[in-house]
Amino acid sequence: MQIAIPLYDRFTALDAVGPYEVLSRLPGATVHFIAPETGMKRTETDMLGINADLCLGELTEPDVFVIPGGYGTRALIDDAQMIDWIRHAHETSEWTTSVCTGSLLLAAAGILDGVEATTHWLEYDLLERLGAKPVSRRVVRQGKVITAAGVSSGIDMALVLAAEIAGDDVAKAIQLGIEYDPEPPFDSGSPAKADPQLVELVTQLARGEQEELEAAS
Amino acid sequence: MQIAIPLYDRFTALDAVGPYEVLSRLPGATVHFIAPETGMKRTETDMLGINADLCLGELTEPDVFVIPGGYGTRALIDDAQMIDWIRHAHETSEWTTSVCTGSLLLAAAGILDGVEATTHWLEYDLLERLGAKPVSRRVVRQGKVITAAGVSSGIDMALVLAAEIAGDDVAKAIQLGIEYDPEPPFDSGSPAKADPQLVELVTQLARGEQEELEAAS
User: Fold this and answer.
1) Which is nearest to B112 in space by CA: B128, B100, B124?
2) Strand, coil or helix: what is A5?
3) Quick check: B185 and A159 CB within 8 A?
4) C-alpha to C-alpha distance for B215 and B217, rounded to whole angstroms
5) Is B49 at the interface with chain A, CB within 8 A?
């Protein structure tokens, strides 16, 4: 089974690496990091670079693909090369998935038209403008399409996907292998649970970073 | 604040990227991926390469460092360059931390002699042989040293650390930013919770992989 994770400038590392860590452990699966051109792609912080080992044209019909999120997605909504790759890959994929704002690119490719999907809680409005029906669930399945909420939710999504692909026992064994028995020290992981002042703070910070990136590009 | 995450051949990606995703969001913090030499280091699956942007000698006194785990740790227990780097960095660090089998290297550097620490549940025996007192808690703090359990536990550890460094509200805001409101589809993330047959299966698979790597090296 060939699994593709497309990278791009200013992606969010955990969006890509969470699903990688689960899906790379599926028996017979190979995860490929791919990009418009091979070589290093760096995160939005510029502190981490992951190598794209293949270019998009070298893996056009993966069995599964995962679009990670990141600030860089906004610049790709109108990028013909990436959006065409997604549209084409979706025609033959067994599973089409995204984490965080990766779903904006699935929506831009027309894959989420009129259906329920999710994204980072900060971007429900944009997801809706792109044609989907945003919902605040952590993992949203619509046929062969699975979208996950912000950043860390890709781990949960990948375990759901692993169970679909290889059965519950394999998914449970992978969960045990990565010792995924989460114990966050706070209960502040969603806007419904966090202090409203922190929700406002994170919203303002994210808007500022987004504007800074747009001004710089 | 300078935060170092040393990489090496056959590391586990999520061990490094979970803490990166949390700690890179601390105000004023810079996370550096470092290695004996700069350039790509690949995971034990060989499917993912992260760039080491600095070599060990370029950052010998970080404020914080995180040793990720992976099969590659076993070859480093006797590696003077890495162990000396850890021992030296620990002399001046504010926080010395590890994820998964990264604690084997802290132990090899003498940092865990006679104190409680944790590691991946498969490696308690080896951690004990290296002088520590293994415990099965997810995040174990001993003064300025924090060790975390297997792979995904690095996210929980990094949130604990973020709170120590910058206060609870900053840690909670980071948790909200990465939408860390975990919802695993199964409750199989620790040997105490998983089906005993799956614990046995994962143990056998891990031993096989370890032997394969040792035979190949």
Assistant:
1) B128
2) strand
3) yes
4) 6
5) yes
